[in-house]
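2024-03-11 09:14:02 DEBUG pipeline.ingest accepted 1 chain
2024-03-11 09:14:02 DEBUG pipeline.ingest length=151
2024-03-11 09:14:03 DEBUG pipeline.predict start
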Amino acid sequence: MADVVELRPVTPENYKACLALKVRPDQEGYVAPNVDSLALAYVYPDAEAKVVYHRDEPVGFVLFHPIDEERPSDGHSIVRFMVDRGAQGQGIGRRALEASLDWIARERRVDVVQLSVEPENVRARSFYRAAGFEETGEIDEGEIVLRRTLP
């Protein structure tokens, strides 16, 4: 149970901790600051923000949104996904991604998950491919789109 990673809602009690989460300096150009992501969650009613917890400590952030607001049954997107620099290299990102996919399957009841990455972010592309995502050949706002079908 000690290594369980879970997603929790952003609340008045944890939003400051969420804002304090930062990626490594070499990753900053690839991931928007969490304050930007929380602003998106505020202005887009279909978006849902979650704080990633490990051992009861906030260690990451995920922002979800339907792929198409008009057809939410088509699938769900992981719009933002980050693990704090102090929690990287411990397998937390992999478990946080699994928790995110489980959340989408359970809460949104869809089996298609989409996300996108900067083309030069080789580590992220490799991470997502290892998790079963495949590049679609699509480009969205300059980012490579990846998709996975859940079992």
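2024-03-11 09:14:41 DEBUG pipeline.report Helices lie at 15-20, 34-43, 92-108, 122-130.
2024-03-11 09:14:41 DEBUG pipeline.predict end
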